[in-house]
Amino acid sequence: MSLIETKNLTAFYGDFQALFGVDLVLNPGETIAVIGANGAGKSTLMRSISGVLRNDPAAVLHRGQAIGALASPDVMARGIALVPEGRRLFPSLTVEENLLVGRHGRKVDGPWSLETVYDLFPILKERRRNPSTALSGGQQQMVAIGRALMSNPEVLLCDELSLGLAPVVIKDIYAAFPRIRETGAAIVIVEQDIAQALKVADRVYCIMEGRVTLEGRPGDLDRADIHAAYFGAE
Ligand code: ATP
């Protein structure tokens, strides 16, 4: 059975329709990437799965159960954690306090604790008593990932990890993913950088103007097809 499935998922902001019937499958232990240009609907898809945007119950399934209408704390309690676009750390809290916030939503034993998150991102241990605002963008992204991991999720949704970060920092962040995968978590990575997505994912979905325009394994996808699915036919 799939871990997460969206079925004919639509999303609206007021009258504006951002998603038009998105069907997506995430299998246990799998890493998928969702690629697409600015405004394609990638973040909306992540918000819809994570309960930030509520929906028809049956539009999002977790292990076959309808969760589309649940609020985000209830989705998180089921083991589906979001690393939101823009990190959204708590500025008045230290690094360690931000990490511990992830623990509150779901107190489940598993591979992740302060110790193992610090092991994954050693710089965070050094900076654990600093306010999160004192960190660089890359370090803040590590805190956002660590905070999500602290809930020992079975699904990790990562929205635009690379946004505003230098290539060398992006490399450091992605270097953590093999270890996250090893724990058995399934991962959804939203990424504008096609090459990065193809490198990290088992399967890729491309979204354009709120619709899935392409789906497949990186090795099976043709460059021209990806280009057309991402930018539209010329
Ligand atoms: P980006 O890379 O810019 O984050 P995206 O693929 O994640 O793009 P979304 O953020 O999901 O795209 O946006 C999809 C569409 O919905 C866009 O046209 C965007 O302008 C619109 N949209 C997003 N958030 C809102 C909102 N809060 N209110 C109204 N429209 C919104």
From TrEMBL:
Belongs to the ABC transporter superfamily. One of its GO terms (molecular function) is ATP hydrolysis activity. It comes from Agrobacterium albertimagni AOL15. PROSITE patterns: ABC_TRANSPORTER_1 (PS00211), ABC_TRANSPORTER_2 (PS50893). The keyword tRNA-binding does not apply. It comes from the Bacteria. GO terms for biological process: L-amino acid transport. Residues 4-234 form the ABC transporter domain. Keywords: Amino-acid transport, ATP-binding, Nucleotide-binding, Transport. This is Putative ATP-binding component of ABC transporter.
